[in-house]
Structures are given as C-alpha cells and as structure tokens.
C-alpha cells in the first residue's frame, strides 16, 4: 500500500503544469501599456520590515496561541507616520483579517496613499493585522509540525484510481497540522486574535474582513460569538452563499470533487505554487471554457484597477498555503448552496463531531440586527458574485436595523480590487472610515 501511494505521489510531483507561469500572466500582458516585468518570488522579510518600516510606520509583532495550539502572528500599527506623539489610548482599534491564500501583508501591499492598513493608521486608528494558521508567518504549533507524516488508513475498495464520490472518501487519514477548515478559523483563530487585541487596548474593535475573512465573521456572528469584543464589521466582497459564482474554473473543480481527490491521495497542505497545485490545475485547464493563461481573472474576476507594481508586490508575498480540507469545505458550500459546518461525508463521523447526521448550518439570519455592518461588493467579482451576494443581503437585511447596515456596490470591481485597486481609497476606504466614525 505504501509503495502504491508513493508511486502515485511521484506521478503527481512530476506532472508538468507550471502555476508560476499562470500567475505571472501579466508579465506578458500589455493591458497597462507598460513594459514592466515582475518575477514571482518569496519576499525575504516579514510585513513589519518589508512594508511598514520601509514607509516609516511603527510596527509591533505579537504571537497569539489559539485554544487548539496554533501559534499565530499578529501585527500592529499603533499610529500613523505623523502621530508618533499621540497616545494609542485615544485611538479606536481595528482588526483586519485577510482572505484565502494570502496573509496580512495584503493590507499594506502598496503605498501609504493606497493601502488600507496605512490609511487607517493615518486616520487615527490603532490597526491590528491578523495572519491565520498555515500562512507564512503563522506556521507554528505547540505540539504539531507542518511536516507531520501522512497517515493512511487503507485503500478504498482496494484499488487505484477510483471514481470519487463524497460517500467513498475515507476521512480517517490526515496530516494533523493541516486538519482544519474555515470552521476552525472562525472558532479559534478569529477569537484568539480579537480577544488579544481587546485585552491589550481595553476597547471593542471594528472588524474588516476580505473574502474568506468575511465568511469567518459571518459564521461567528451567526452563533452570537465575539459580540462582546467587536463593535462593527466591514465585509469586503463577502463570500457565504457560493452556488452561483461566475468562476467556471472554481465551479468545475468543486463539481468534479477535485479537492476531495487531492485529500484522498494523502495531501493536506495546498501550496498554490507547489507541485500538487500544478497537477490539480492540469486536470481542468484542458476545458476550452477555462482560460488558464489568465488564471488570476479566471478565479477572481477581471480586475479593473490594479497597477503593475502592486501586482508584483502581491506575487512577492502570495499566494500562500491553505489546507486541502479548507478547499474541500468551500467546495461543499458551492455544491450544496448553503452555509454549514464541514461535512465528514458519512453519518457516523458527523454524529461523532456534531451529534447529528448532517453538519450544523450557520444560520446567517440569526446575526443580531443591532450589529453595524458595512458591505461592499463588485459587479465583476467571480467569487462573491452579485446573485450570491444579493442572497446574503436578503438574509441580513430581512431583520437588520436599517441604520446599522450600509451597502456599497462598485460595478467594475472584481475580487482583488477591494484590497489592491489604485482607486479603492476614494471609492471604498473613504466611505469605510466615515462608517467607523458613525459607529
């Protein structure tokens, strides 16, 4: 059995699809009318050194341990460049939580005039920047390692390969460090960093989430958690209901159970620029409806307003790893149309984890109607698409106090524009600061 698994992994490692080329599609693009080039490569320095200190901002680094033992990096920009003599006690704290396959550097990736983290600091806020488990700066644990060996319980139906169906998946094998999905991010990572910042400042925090960071706060609020430490929430292109998303690549991957296949093969870390990702994409890029040359747009939508320097900075810090289980969970949401906890694929394991045969639903309509919410979404977003976002809005607005919910729609924005667009300070961040000042 071990020999068969080893041979399968060798095949996976050497199949020839180069994701770096796909991610660097703008290197060959003339859409900006420039000859700028950038080569994707990891940045040798962390956020505080590479971004904050480079622009003259103070930056503090903390380590926060979750209840399940993950050690997270939490950054803090306590004040702006012109306010070094201003006491942080007078500043309102804000917690920023990033999306999928990136980390907290996404909030300070551009210049002080364009990056939300710097803009908030310069507008008098105490800025806290989270980094979830598995990202480059949050890969430690009190007892586990990212290099833990894979444990395989046995062949399914005693043969390879197998036509995969969720009821065929044996979920008893896993790599311990990577055994999590966004359930754990909402239940452990988010509460840990929010409580830490609250204890440090003594004040309830505003919250800003992008993409997966919005799903985490929606899940927590739906269970009436964190209401004692957070005072408002900003949802940048939220993802919750996903069944009608416009990304054909993502939809196809979910419908053919691609993440489950990777999980079944014994891979539990998904590195977007690693050999497993190369193979995953090679399975779907032959589809004529999917343009893998323009992979960034195929997944997130055709952004309108990114400049080359910002995108090059993005490639220095992203994409980063997530767990395959997290991708399986998101695929379940796409196929099922609702928002629920991770489905273990059989009644026995669901009963073990939840004491019921099906995973519990996150009831988003139960989010307290007094919580101030600012939601902004884009017409070209392939992940947080308009029909699914309207479904979310109907769920939230049905009982929400009208004075406590604001919606901003930007027709030409795609998923990445909300954190990297050159005109986001005028279109998004200005109204956001005004929202914070009202609440």
TrEMBL record:
List the residue ranges forming a coiled coil, or say none: none
Print the keywords alphabetically: Hydrolase, Lipid degradation, Lipid metabolism, Signal
Domain of life according to the entry: Eukaryota
Q: Name one Pfam family in it.
A: Abhydro_lipase
One Gene Ontology MF term: hydrolase activity, acting on ester bonds
Active site positions, chain numbering: 211 (nucleophile), 381 (charge relay system), 415 (charge relay system)
Q: Which InterPro entries match?
A: AB_hydrolase_fold, AB_hydrolase_lipase, Lipase_euk
Q: For this UniProt entry, which residues form the secretion signal?
A: 1-24
A GO BP term here is: lipid catabolic process
Please report the stretch or stretches of sequence annotated as the Partial AB-hydrolase lipase domain.
Answer: 52-110
Question: Can you tell me which family this protein belongs to?
Answer: Belongs to the AB hydrolase superfamily. Lipase family.
Q: Quote the protein name from its UniProt record.
A: Lipase
Organism of provenance:
Oryza brachyantha (malo sina)
